[in-house]
Amino acid sequence: MRVTFSVQRFNPEQDHAPHQEEFRLDVAWRSTTVLDALIRIRQEIDPTLGFRHSCRSAICGSCSMVINGRHTLACKTLLGPEIERHGPTITVEPMRNLPPLKDLAVRMEPFWSKVRAITPWLERDAGGTAGAVISKETRSHLHNVDACILCGACVSSCSTLAVSPGFLGPAALAKAYRFLADPRDTARARRLALLEQPDGVWDCTRCNFCVEVCPKDVQPMEAIVRLRRAAITDGLTDTIGARHITGFAEIVRHEGRLNEGRLPLQMLWRQPMALLAQLPLAVNMFVRGKVPLPWHPPLGSIRSIRKLFGRWGKPSSWTN
Question: pTM for this one?
Fold first, then answer.
């Protein structure tokens, strides 16, 4: 079958901006991967085509790119399903949220700098046991985050990074949880203090794209949720993100439902100017009936709801 590959090209020494270039190949489309096709294009048509690859087995993560709008590994993406969904034209682009290097290759320095920032190794004090071997049962608490191959697909798809380049990103935060959850590590307080800073764990918008694209089912967003829970459990509740969670839970415990008029007060009472800026929104919400009246009674089932809170402990121990 003859397949068209629309490949993004960019040579910083020649081009002012990226552009698409088409290549046509006759391929066994049901058994050929996108990486196989790119290698053939470079060998048979254009030896200047730039992209990364190594293992061809979805282990090294170096061939991460955007294929037909999906962030994935080229070595595990068969042409068959792509053609069935999108037709005989395959669009291939480099990863997003990272600066371009050449064609389908991007500069990975920003990615690695964020991984290094979370101290991706075990730390221990004088009495620690960082060198000990942990049991299989203990490893289960890492929730598969140690399976990350650092391919960058989650970073490429991250909606927060698209507007806030300083954000640590899902890969670095998932790696941070891997060491926070390791019982041999003794730097829990320092790690959490770092992660609650701006561009840290509270900047994630929970869009879930990182979970959808991860080729190893690491579920970075879930790791971020567990980091947030750990921060609140350890008493790090001064950030707006933490106050949103604890305030949300407290309002539901008290009234049986969310009161969207009280929630900004719970979050921003220490920042009067920020709270004042919410006044126009509050007026619009009130006019549209989105804010319960102050004298509105709790729900009739409030006792059942409070029993749930009593069963699961304080809000800081279970909210996310």
Answer: 0.85
